[in-house]
Amino acid sequence: MKNKAANPIKFTCGASMKNRFMLAPMTNTQSHEDGQLSKEELNWLKMRAEGQFGLVMTCATHVQEIGKGFPGQLGLFSDEHIEGHKKLTRAIKENGSLIVSQLHHAGMRSPMDLLQDKPVCPSDNEKHNARGLSLEEVKQLRDDFIQAAIRAKESGYDGVEIHGAHGYILTQFLSAAINHRTDEYGGSLENRARILLEIVDGVRTTCGSDFLLGVRLSPERFGMDLREVTTICQQLIDGGKIDFLDVSLWDSFKEPEEEQYKGKSLLTYFTELDRKNVLLTVAGGIKSAQDVREVLDAGVDFVTIGHSAILHHDFPKKVMENDNFEPTPTPVSKDYLRKEGLGEDFIEYMTRWSGFVKQ
């Protein structure tokens, strides 16, 4: 029987993906400090397209200077970035892969020493020394996400993913534990989700019906409530504006952390959604051919690969050719990672992952 992971899929917007593998949007600190694309970043992503990832996603790409989340972050907050992004999209498309830019703003998680300024947040946050945004700034933030999507389209991207996960600024708006605003962007879930939904509407309106549009959410940590996240997912689906949902589970095989939601896997809460024409991908601990098979058999449309994509630029090819493929065990040497297309800054970043790089 043909490996299900090798089957192509089509999104509502008309874009086709040649198989079921998406490269996870991974922090790697290897672009230039002004947000310009580096040759190392180009090489890393191009090798993943050559390795047959059906959809290649950039690292989190910031939409405002004050939204920078890590050193060497790729930017799309200025027209000056477009030329570099055009090089990238051409290189990926030459290999028959879709190329999507992940649009991001770190909010209170922006390191102060990187910004030389106070980071921003939906409301004042003493723990992170972050200041609350004015109403005018919230609307500017929304518009800057939309403007970055317009730049992405001009750069040749097939689409964008709005990063609403992992405690970054859109999560901060969604989280009742972090967002203490008293205007239309705070309080009820409807208000807390308003900026995300306005960004989605704005991107669809300005970039057109044939532009691939996804949203990334994470259902746990940072004050997120699982039921609220599934409610937002259903709202995004029912709104008919997105093509895919990207849910970051940390571990695709575990039960929820919160006691009241235990009894079934965290993944099941998302496969049970009435997804209509919206495709679902998940990330978290999908490392081997068997993991890929299990997640696809559970009803997920395509898998998002991080850990094994770092170890094997051609992970999709290996899985499609071998139903029993297991990734190289870690730790691996720095030379090994160089051969797999990681730049020196990315390799240095990976030393923070416990047991990943031989010391």
Secondary-structure blueprint:
Layout: E1 9-10, E2 16-17, E3 21-23, H1 39-50, E4 55-62, H2 82-93, E5 98-104, H3 112-115, E6 120-121, E7 131-132, H4 135-154, E8 159-163, H5 169-174, H6 189-192, H7 194-207, E9 212-217, H8 226-239, E10 244-248, H9 268-271, E11 279-283, H10 289-297, E12 302-305, H11 307-311, H12 315-321, H13 334-339, H14 344-350
What are the key terms here?
8-stranded parallel barrel, TIM Barrel, two-stranded antiparallel ribbon, 359 residues, alpha/beta
Radius of gyration: 19 Å
Q: Tally the helices.
A: 14
| Overall strand count | 12
Cα distance, first to last residue?
43 Å
CATH topology, anyone?
TIM Barrel
Shape: globular
Order of helices and strands: EEEHEHEHEEHEHHHEHEHEHEHHHH
What's the level 1 CATH class? Alpha Beta
**Unreliably modeled segments:** none
Descriptive overview:
With 359 residues, the protein is of the alpha/beta class. The protein has one domain (4-327): Aldolase class I (TIM Barrel, Alpha-Beta Barrel). Helices cover 35% and strands 14% of the residues. It has 14 helices and twelve strands. It has an eight-stranded parallel β-barrel, surrounded by six helices. Strands 1-2 form a two-stranded antiparallel ribbon. Helix 1 (39-50) runs parallel beside helix 2. The chain is globular. The N and C termini lie far apart (43 Å). The model has no long low-confidence stretch (mean pLDDT 97).
